[in-house]
Amino acid sequence: MAFRGSIEIDTPHCKGCGVCVANCPTGSIQLSRMVNSKGYNYAEMVGDACIGCSACALVCPDSVITVYRVKI
Amino acid sequence: MDTAEIMRPENIVYRKPALITDNVMHYCPGCSHGVVHKLIAEVIDEMGIQDSTIGISPVGCSVFAYNYIDIDWQEAAHGRAPALATATKRLCPDKHVFTYQGDGDLASIGTAEIIHACSRGENIVVIFINNGIYGMTGGQMAPTTLIGMKTSTTPYGRDPKINGFPMVIADMISHLDGTAYITRQSVHTAAAVRKAKSAIRKAFEYSEKNIGLSFVEIVSTCNSGWKMSPVDANKWMVENMFKKYPIGDIKDVLKDAPAL
Amino acid sequence: MAEKILMKGNEAIAISAIRNGVDGYFGYPITPQSEVMETLMKERPWLTTGMVVLQAESETSSINMIYGGACCGKKVMTSSSSPGVSLMCEGISYMAGAELPCVVVDVMRGGPGLGTIQPSQSDYNMIVKGSGHGDFHNIVIAPASAQDMYDFVDWGFELAFRYRNPVVILADGIIGQMMEKVEMHEQKPRRTAEEILRDAPWATTGKPASRPRNIITSLSLDSDIQEVFNRKLAVKYAEIEANEVKYTEYLTDDAEYLFVAFGCSSRICEAAVDELREAGIRAGMLRPVTLYPYPFARIEELAGKMKSIMSVELNLGQMVDDVRLAVKGTCPVGFYGRQGGNIFTPEEITDAFKKFNNLK
User: Fold this and answer.
1) What is the tens place of the pLDDT at every residue in C258-269?
2) pTM of the model
3) Does C286 lie in the same domain as C161?
4) Which of B12, B27, B194 sits opposite A61 (nearest CB)?
């Protein structure tokens, strides 16, 4: 069974720690070159390889990631 | 299928736990505390015990834990959380009572309280965050600091001749008859987070069985105190902390019960 | 007819705790008050009223158990003696800072340090002036008999809950160890969960969906917030000072000389007053029953009519500072005391009195 996923990041509250980036199995997250109002390079989704596995959200200390997943 | 089609409410598989408040956590980026808070909030929500859970926060970085999980909280003096928990549980036996303590709080100033709560077999849950350093006061040596590890009070590395040896609290208390479940977990990968959550859930379930104290140690990072990036701190933890503090169950009286 | 039983002051504390429906006692053995926990353990109230009694691993732990129990809106208490109470001071400060009700019994012995195990009143300054860091007051009540020990438990909890403030019963080794007849009342029930919700809506009883979470803490980190809180405490203390001062007087109506003494010293002082009266000297005595709030106004009023006032204490002179504050220099203030666990006789007091007043 294959999945497609997407994530929504609460950008103003992301602290840009990068733990999600290191934990993403599909390389679908990176830290933005932009910063939020706190000065953090927030996480952002890249590409369309996300499978909605939730690894990023599980390890996120600030609970800023919402994960969507659909079977295809 | 485009992103807009995927991002529909019915497709949400993971979101911020309902019992995590909207307060922005004061923890440093990448700090393990936030993940552990989230797991406790999820377990309390999933067990449906919000109205019967009383949390006891320590002194240390997690002193403000009460700002983040939507339950009743008591804020203890440094190291004394197990004493508060003891009385709370004994006076309110139908409540779920847990303490949340760091290594300075639990393994240094609060050793008497934790050892005796374990020894008496209090039916409480203890969440022990072990990152081998004092975070809040600026990165000083903790009882669990590894040999050779640099901190602001061991700037040349912890020397056992001067500073003694790291304390392995979970193993120590496993010898006390009052402990029911002792496990050591971490939260640095998705798989580890899932296992840590199961451990926390088990600890809360055991506390309902009146079989003694349940103790969940989370080997954690303090990237600010360790002076590393969060990702590097996780790697360093795996390579160094896990050798002294190996991950896994240490005691489970319901599993390990000797055949009679 | 009310039940009267011969018992030690320490035993009266324990029996009173049970009869008044106290929810929990947490303590650690120390002479001269160990009978409090021993009596509770012998009575096993957990089988009758459901009261929890636990021997903790230290006084530090005892006071923090009280902290936890008080957070839940329960009537909880501990007892100890001077060195043990020193250890409890941290916890008492936290409870004052978190505005938690509790009763702490200090059965004083001689100090400083490990000192002696004999009676003393040398914790006056520690308990009345401080008992921990920060800007706060304990409500302090000083029993002078086994009956007082019995009665003050209930009174102590009434004050503790009315003001959400720690109350210290400041007793001494004499009152704790002395056996006297004590009149006891019928068993009162412990408060129900509903009554706790009504009387202590702030307590950590488990958060229902219907209210915000209850957080018991003494931490603010913000100077402005802390200042607002400390000023709130000041308003509370002013209310306590206005409403709760309690003292007794002995032969003060026509007195020319006044003794001020609390606790066991007041009992001995009474005999000294009698001896002086027999010798034709019109002496009287005021016994502060509450040490905080202190009867400053009444002592000031009496000072206007006196030739002199003498504070009589089992210490080097601690309460005498408060007597001087009250008197405001309107008459001479003297002090007589014994220390280290020694107790004065009425004769020693009258001798010291005569010497101070140049009387034969």
Assistant:
1) 999 999 999 999
2) 0.95
3) no
4) B27
